[in-house]
Amino acid sequence: MLEFISNNITFLYLIVLMIIVGIELISHVPSVLHTPLMSGANAIHGVVLIGAIIVLGKAESNDYFSLIVGFIGVIVGTLNVIGGFVVTDRMLEMFKKKKK
């Protein structure tokens, strides 16, 4: 474990820095902009879905770990993309004029 940490200390510093910067950025986003930014980010996460499909396509038929991880990735990626579009649609509904 210590050997892994000493070999990858730069990456560990980078991950800690990304966490700190991410928390600072998110905490300073006004609440009015939070929903549009998050729904857009969820929609962009279709890349996860593409990656999971590639993992499933390249997995050997007897490599159950890759098949399970790929399948879970497809399910979670699909839910994330659909959720992003649902949130965006609900947000845009707030700005439409209501019929009397």
Number of strands: 0
As an assembly, this protein is single chain
Query: What is Rg?
Result: 19 Å
Report the total helices: 5
Fraction of residues in helix: over 70%
Give the overall pLDDT as a whole number: 83
The N- and C-terminal alpha carbons lie at a distance of 66 Å
Structural class: mainly alpha
Which spans of ≥5 residues are poorly predicted at pLDDT below 50? none
User: What percentage of the residues does DSSP assign to strands (E)?
Assistant: under 5%
Global morphology: flat
- Following the backbone from N to C, one meets helices and strands in this order, namely HHHHH
Overall domain count: 1
Major sheet characteristics: none
Give me the secondary-structure topology.
Blueprint: H1 2-7, H2 9-27, H3 31-44, H4 46-58, H5 64-93
Helix pairs in contact: 3-5, 4-5
Question: Could you describe the 3D structure shown?
Answer:
With 100 residues, the protein is an all-alpha fold. The chain contains 5 helices and no strands. The protein has one domain (2-93). The chain has helices spanning 2-7, 9-27, 31-44, 46-58, 64-93. α3 (31-44) packs across α5 (64-93). The mean pLDDT is 83.
